[in-house]
What we know:
The complex is a heterodimer. Chain A is mainly beta. Chain A has helices at 18-27, 88-93, and strands at 10-11, 43-59, 66-72, 78-84, 106-114, 120-127, 133-135. The longest helix of chain A is centred in the N-terminal third of the chain and has 10 residues, at 18-27. Chain A is globular. The relative contact order of chain A is 0.21. Chain B has a single domain, classed as Calycin beta-barrel core domain (Lipocalin, Beta Barrel). Chain B has three helices and nine strands; from the N terminus they run H-E-H-H-E-E-E-E-E-E-E-E. The longest helix of chain B has 19 residues, at 2-20. Chains A and B meet through strand 1, helix 1 and helix 2 of A and helix 2 and strand 9 of B. Strand 1 of chain A pairs antiparallel with strand 9 of chain B.
Amino acid sequence: MDHPIDGGGIAYTEVRNMRLLVLGVLLAMAPYAFAHHSFGAEYDSAKPITLTGVVTKIDWSNPHVYIYLDVKGDNGQVVNWALEGHPPNTLRRTGWTRSALKENDTITVTGWMSKDGSNRIAGREVTLPDGKKLFLGPPAQ
Amino acid sequence: MKFLRLLILALLAFYAFAQSNAPTANGKLRRDALGRPDLSGIWQAIGVSLFGETGEVRPGEGRASTWGPPPGPPPYQDWALKKSRELAADDRNDPTVHCRMAGTPRITGIPVPFEIAQTAKKTYILYESNHIFRIIPTDGRPHPSSDELDPSYMGDSIGRWDGDTFVVDVTGFNDKTWLPGFGHFHSDALHVTERYTLQPNDTILYEAAMEDAKVFTKPWQYRLILRHPPRDERIMEAECQENNQDLQHIVPDPKR
Lengths: 141, 256
């Protein structure tokens, strides 16, 4: 369940192995993650996070889009966070346009923190300045 | 007799329900000028851009028969199963995390679309992932001799028609790709037989039989339902190396 890089599908060593087919159908209901690596390889599903900050840079790049965000902490110190999302083509197909987000926009994003302690999150949903919400990446696995 | 009648009624109801999921008029297959089922078009197996955020199949397209996580381990020899588990514990072992070509048949399950262009003597598959292409001759020619065939990521493909099913024989692989799933390595002895069967509801049943005597105890099979994306898609550019930050941040997971 933790390795959804690719593949969705039913593997069967014997076509008549109905139990495996049924299992495959059940597994088929699971959510899907990043196309390029598994969610759990970099991010911790037990550590959800919500950040509000100012967009400093947008990398509309492969294999993942990165949005960089200056977030002011409780101590007043500003920290720059990287939000990882789906690849650009996938975002285009799920409702993002080039003008949806600009540098200096203030946005709120939900996601999950990285496992390596760096200031990176797996971005899930972005709330744009006009209140519109768009998904940036997959749900946690 | 009453039970039998009920059984027949139930079967008829089921048949009617199954038919209602087939939108193509009269259940006829789309065919090309040569009378072969026409596989041309944009196809995709899984992914948020196909199924949406909730993973639901669109109305009229039947059940979500095949998408989600990759299949379980292939029928590996004991040593190979151990190696596969070791590979799976660290995403950095995955060739696609390094932006290498996904290989055949793993490429078919990558969650981005690809286009099949079927012509009289060749069929082309243009994958958005890494801009990979495959040229599949269908003019009866054999594979190049082993002396002429350099091992490759996607293998050498030769196509033929078995009734209404397009069968592609793929050989000449290197050992640098994975099979569908995670940690599922193979050797250069891999031989893949793909079967593309167009369905009356304009989906493709995709089946891949994988043989690899160096690592398997018996053949392994994999299948997907290929669907048209919801919009009139075009295959777009996708250059994977551009900003690949993941390698520096992946944390190995021995439990995987």
